[in-house]
């Protein structure tokens, strides 16, 4: 499948959304870079974050929208392409990791539930900015289940 939109435009939109969500979640003191990896490197994930706790920096790795087909059949409808959910989920890890949870599954469940709640509230707000969808696709923003990262 070919890329349906300009990669630079999509990367720029992702950077804007990350900056926006950093302000909302109050983690703007973190330096976050963004990279796009091929689908095999991300396994079944749409996003993954590599965190350096010593200098409060992270690299958020995302899939391009044209590579979502490799994973979306395993996700609830609309969630694989919902980049707001993935970005918020990854940023919530920055907030929860200091709790030093011994149960990774519990942390993932918390990230899923919080990301879904925050994004739904954000989208319901009449003055909220436009959300990020893969190249204006009509199926974006239909996520309703908090179970996509388990």
Would you kindly provide a brief summary of this structure?
The chain has 150 residues and is α+β, with helices and mostly antiparallel strands.
What share of the residues does DSSP label as strand, in percent?
Answer: 5-15%
Strand order of the largest sheet: 1-3-2
Strand/helix succession? HEEEHH
Return the CATH class.
Answer: Alpha Beta
> Radius of gyration from the CA trace?
14 Å
Total number of domains: 1
Helix share, percent:
25-40%
Distance between the termini: 27 Å
Q: How does CATH name the architecture?
A: 2-Layer Sandwich
Largest sheet: 3 strands, mixed
Regions with little confidence, pLDDT below 50 for 5+ residues: 138-150
CATH topology (level 3) name: Zincin-like
Task: Determine the structural class based on helices, strands and strand pairing.
Answer: alpha+beta
**DSSP E strands, number:** 3
Shape: globular
Number of helices: 3
- Average pLDDT over all residues: 78
Notes on the structure:
The structure is a single chain. The longest helix has 21 residues, at 104-124. It is built from 3 helices and 3 strands; from the N terminus they run αβββαα. Helix 1 packs across helix 2 and helix 2 crosses helix 3. It has 150 residues and is α+β, with helices and mostly antiparallel strands. It is globular and about 35 Å long. It has helices at 7-25, 83-96, 104-124; strands spanning 31-36, 47-52, 57-62. It has a single domain (7-126), classed as 2-Layer Sandwich (Zincin-like), CATH 3.30.2010. The protein starts with 6 loop residues before the first helix and ends in a 26-residue tail after the last helix.
